[in-house]
TrEMBL record:
It comes from Polaribacter aquimarinus. GO terms for biological process: phospholipid biosynthetic process. Its cofactor is Mg(2+). Pfam families: DAGK_cat (PF00781), YegS_C (PF19279). This is Diacylglycerol kinase. Gene3D superfamilies: 2.60.200.40, Probable inorganic polyphosphate/atp-NAD kinase, domain 1. NCBIfam families: YegS/Rv2252/BmrU family lipid kinase (TIGR00147). The keyword DNA damage does not apply.
Length: 302
């Protein structure tokens, strides 16, 4: 087993100059005498095979350098392997992405120097991981927030806007409010069966999504429960007038919003196939079942 860190860096994440950021990261790691190996991703989802190869070589501490998408695929690589227990792995994050939402739950600043200092201190939490099964029986893991409906629509729109940086989330959000068509979702969890016209249903392990918005209530990332938020018939005006509440998290108290905690939920959209997003990555459309794997991976936190 290796005591070195294994760094997986996505040179395409964020919109800052990657080679400049990378030189800074290398200098800081040397300064802190942190022993490491590194690889750059060469294509989307390359993270999965890179992290699995690293685990087979004996690495147990992985650093994801990029945004939420890079971390999402690193997590999927770990969860999809059967070589070792996933809870033997520790992940640290050096944020280079656009939204960088996962780090916000743990007060990790969007700053390379501070993120490396936090990694050096090695304080960890054993966090839950969510697992989504889509209509075609495909399985996807998520470490932050997943959702169906409006937020999936936004993630799809974001693809063409991310080059604009942080503002892209706001622009995609407004576009979605103008053009996304709500649909009726049948939802079942515990002994509940709901049928509602929904803007979206959000499923959280952690607290922030959409570039700093908060749709989950009283989040605890290691309680073995999914935080479900059902945004019902919210209109364009409801969203615009409540914009500060989307960022402060108070939106969960709105009369058209319901929150639940559960271990498993199935959502079946009626007469439409809305996009499903997981950690800001588009993973499918239509029906989805979501479960939780309690205390699955160690993450370095502040
Ligand atoms: N070399 C590569 N070329 C193209 N795409 C890549 C490459 N490496 C990784 N990717 C993909 O790029 C996507 C975006 O990366 P990431 O989410 O980390 O950055 P971001 O979109 O800027 O940040 P955020 O998600 O925090 O807004 C991910 O789906 C990732 O798998």
């Amino acid at each position: 087993m290796s005591n070195s860190w294994f760094l997986i860096a996505n040179p395409t994440s964020g919109n800052r100059n990657f080679s400049k950021q990378w030189s800074k990261i290398q200098q800081l790691l040397k300064l802190k005498k942190i022993d490491y190996y590194f690889v750059f991703t060469q294509f989307s989802k390359h993270e999965i095979e890179l992290v699995q190869a690293a685990i087979q070589k004996g690495f147990r501490t992985i650093i994801s350098i990029g945004g939420d998408g890079t971390l999402h695929h690193v997590v999927n690589g770990i969860m999809l392997q059967t070589y070792i227990k996933t809870s033997d792995i520790t992940i640290g994050v050096i944020p280079l992405g656009t939204g960088n939402d996962w780090i916000k739950t743990y007060n990790i600043p969007n700053n390379i120097e501070k993120a490396i200092e936090i990694i050096h201190q090695k304080k960890t939490i054993l966090q839950d991981i969510g697992v989504l099964e889509t209509e075609n029986k495909k399985v996807h893991y998520f470490n932050n927030v997943a959702g169906l409906g409006y937020d999936g629509y936004i993630v799809n729109k974001l693809k063409s806007l991310k080059k604009l940086g942080g503002i892209s989330y706001v622009l995609a959000g407004i576009y979605g409010l103008l053009f996304y068509k709500k649909s009726t979702f049948k939802m079942s969890f515990d002994d509940k069966k709901l049928e509602e016209s929904c803007l979206m249903t959000v499923i959280g392990i952690c607290q922030f999504s959409g570039g700093g918005m908060q749709f989950t209530k009283n989040v605890n990332p290691s309680d073995g429960l999914l935080d479900i938020t059902i945004a019902k018939n919210l209109t364009f005006f409801d969203m615009v007038f409540n914009l500060p509440k989307l960022y402060s998290g108070k939106i969960v108290n709105h009369k058209k919003v319901e929150t639940y905690k559960t271990k498993e939920i199935t959502i079946i959209p009626q007469n439409s196939k809305p996009f499903i997003q997981a950690d800001g990555e588009l993973i499918g459309t239509g029906k989805v079942t979501v479960k939780i794997i309690e205390k699955a991976i160690n993450f370095i936190i502040n």
